[in-house]
Amino acid sequence: MSGNILIVEDEPKLAILLSDYLRASGFEPSCLSNGAEVVPWTREHKPDLIILDLMLPGCDGIEVCKNIRSFFCIPIIMVTARIEEIDILLGLELGADDYICKPFSPREVVARVKAVLRRAHDGQTIQVQGLVLDKHRYRATLHNKDLELTAVEFNLLQFLANSPGRIYNRQQLMDKIYPDERIVSDRSIDSHIKKLRRKIESVDPSAKLIHSVYGVGYKFEQGTS
Q1: Within a 10 A sphere around the Cβ of 115, how many other Cβ atoms?
Q2: Alpha-carbon span 148 to 131, nearest angstrom
Q3: Residues 6+ apart with CB under 8 A from 196
Q4: pLDDT band with cut points at 50, 70 and 90 for residue 182
Q5: What's the farthest any 2 CA atoms get from each other in the chain?
Q6: pLDDT tens-digit readout, 104-138
Q7: What are the backbone dihedrals phi and psi of residue 159, each rounded to the nearest 5 degrees, phi first?
Q8: Angle of the 187-203 helix axis to the 170-177 helix axis, nearest 10
Q9: Euclidean distance between the first and final Cα of the chain, in Å?
Q10: Best CA proximity match to 39, nearest among 60, 23, 18
């Protein structure tokens, strides 16, 4: 197994130790020590998994996890020296895929990394004629070019692409991409569709993937609109 792993840890010796063990297992590790650096680094490099310490200078791990989850569904393993249940539960509720309490064995961390990545890679990709949707990383590419979608745009495109040719009305789409039942206008769907089309066509002007069905809703289908 391989992949790019970001280690966010402000204890230099521990970060180096984890890097050495991960590298020996075939991974490509990178290290950051300040929480404020994580989000911009993640946006630029898009690692396969993050090992994220809870207590960090600049921005704590909980806030970092929350910020990353707003745009990128990357696997996250949270690390904490505090064993109080509230910290663990809060980390998992924010979207962490696993947690490890200090002190720990580096071999245990490598094993956890492999297990989380295996779960992440099982059935997590949709491919449709040049369009690739990586469901766990919230990454959409068209002809190998990143579409730079927001989390809402990705969810909308993924939902439509899962059932090519099926027509969904606005309410069905709203129920899917806003499961928390927030109050939004059904015209929000029109706005998201417009942005999705613009991003797709900026990569390939001939790619007509999302079609309007007058008076009904939208569908995903290859072909011309």
Answers
A1: 13
A2: 13
A3: 149, 153, 156, 157, 210
A4: low
A5: 62
A6: 899 999 999 998 888 766 656 677 767 888 876 77
A7: -60, -45
A8: 80
A9: 42
A10: 60
The closest alpha carbon to 25, from 135, 151, 96, 109, belongs to: 109
Cβ atoms of 158 and 166 closer than 8 Å = no
pLDDT of residue 225: 43
Task: Write the CA distances from 177 to 71, 170, 191, integer angstroms.
Answer: 14, 11, 13
d(CA 65, CA 53): 10
Is 11 within 8 Å of 37 (Cβ atoms)? no
Cα separation, 48 vs 137, whole angstroms: 8
CATH architecture of structural domain 125-220: Orthogonal Bundle (1.10)
Give the H/E segment covering residue 112. Answer: helix 106-121
Higher model confidence: residue 127 or residue 81? Answer: 81
Per-domain residue ranges of the chain? 4-121, 125-220
Residue type, 58: G
Query: 4-121 and 125-220: same fold?
Result: no
CATH code at 4-121: 3.40.50.2300
Residue 109 is inside which H or E element, if any?
A: helix 106-121
Q: DSSP assignment, residue 18?
A: H
